[in-house]
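Suppose you are handed a protein chain with no further information: no name, no annotation, nothing but its sequence. What can you learn? This example shows the usual starting point.
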Amino acid sequence: MDFVQPTLTTWFEIQTKDHDMTARVLAAAARAFAEPLPPTSGFVADLRDYLVGFVQGWHHQKEERAVFPRLAQRAAQAEGGLVAAMVTEHAQARELVSRFDAAAKAYIDGARDRIGELVETFRAYASFDERHRRKESDVLYPLANRLFSPEDAEDVLEEIAEMERDLGWGTRERYWNLAAEIVSRVELKDLSWGLKPEVLAAILNTLPIQLTFVDQDDRVRYFSHERGAQIVDRSRGVIGKEVQRCHPQKSFSLVEEILGDFKAGRRELVEFWFDMGPRKIHVRYWPVRDEGGKYLGCLETVQDVTAIQKLTGQNRLLDPVG
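A reasonable first move is to predict its three-dimensional structure. Written in structure tokens, the prediction is:
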């Protein structure tokens, strides 16, 4: 996971990215504090560094030194009151973070009995910050973006760059990478990771499609509907076998060709269909890849499409059952 986006070229993009990143960090921390086991000292130390060092010491300072004063000059009197309100909220946020900081320092130093205070102060801050960020993202930033001249926008960007130089080059990237680390410790890699294995198995076995998975070494590793109605027969005897050996000799070379094309990225789907008595069976093969494109194996899906072929007209969810 990487928050760094070198293509960000305007103050609006940078500040908006800060907000998006902070929202994910706070959501991740909220999940960590809701776990049965308390968070590690290292996690709390990183969260403290992010909230104290980045949100208060960097993000809010960019607004107070570069964005707010210029917006107050450009805005009408009524709109200028929005800037004053945001400055007041920054002061309230500093007080909330100060309370969290004290509890976090104690917790990191070994005072695990402060966990209740740590969680309470975090939740108070997170709730406040969510409302504050929404006001800035939905109202203040768009207002400033509309009122600032191109010269204003360039000046704000330069002031942000000057602040970063004062704090040390790479400040932004360091904190964005810290945020990525915090989130990666908590955030589910995939929503399926949050399911119990028996629930995930039940979901796969409920699908009206029969699945078979062959790994990157061409060995059968999984098939669904083992204990239910199968379209094509599968038994545990095939698990671990080379998939080529599970097909007739005459189709051996075709299986090799399909798998070779999947591994080389030459094909993303192979399909065929045939009749099984009165039923029409649709078989498809898909390459399975990770987020980086690495080949993980091949998925076979087998579906009885007889009833689907007969569909006509419409039958929407709220239509009466005929």
